[in-house]
């Protein structure tokens, strides 16, 4: 299959603590664990956790390597378009599972969504808009 709109996307990033990350993304947001590897001392064999919705064409890969520290910025966003108001109970669940609600430096995201920072400092934006009307 040539590269295009149906190509699967993997978003990979480092994590300090895969257990804390799993609580946030799985128990907080509701993603499923798609794959997990314990890791070894061998080069290239890191502990990792893949999360996503089974029917999605993307997934999140979190890798723990003690020599790599996450370095998120305020613009490292994963945006989920809900096409409805952000449920208060979802935000509360994300916070109960290690997230911190934060204001975005970009007023667009404050107007159209809720931003929650994960335990590694990366930001999840829950957007009230529909993807097709998000420009």
TrEMBL record:
Domain VOC per the UniProt entry, residue ranges: 5-129
Matching SUPFAM superfamilies: Glyoxalase/Bleomycin resistance protein/Dihydroxybiphenyl dioxygenase
InterPro entries for the chain: Glyas_Bleomycin-R_OHBP_Dase (IPR029068), VOC_core (IPR037523), YycE-like_C (IPR058997), YycE-like_N (IPR058998)
Top-level taxonomic group: Bacteria
Annotated protein name in UniProt: Glyoxalase/bleomycin resistance protein/dioxygenase
Lineage of origin: Bacteria, Bacillati, Actinomycetota, Actinomycetes, Kitasatosporales
């Amino acid at each position: 299959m040539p590269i295009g709109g149906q190509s699967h996307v993997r978003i990979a990033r480092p994590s300090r603590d895969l257990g804390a990350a799993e609580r946030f993304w799985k128990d907080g947001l509701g993603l499923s664990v798609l794959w997990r590897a314990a890791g070894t001392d061998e080069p290239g064999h890191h502990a990792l956790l893949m999360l996503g919705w089974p029917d999605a064409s993307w997934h999140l890969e979190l890798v723990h390597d003690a020599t790599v520290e996450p370095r998120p910025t305020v613009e490292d966003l994963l945006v989920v378009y809900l096409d409805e108001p952000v449920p208060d109970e979802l935000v509360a669940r994300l916070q109960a599972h290690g997230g911190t609600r934060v204001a975005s430096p970009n007023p667009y995201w404050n107007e159209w969504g809720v931003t929650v920072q994960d335990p590694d400092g990366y930001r999840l934006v829950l957007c009230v808009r529909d993807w097709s009307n998000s420009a």
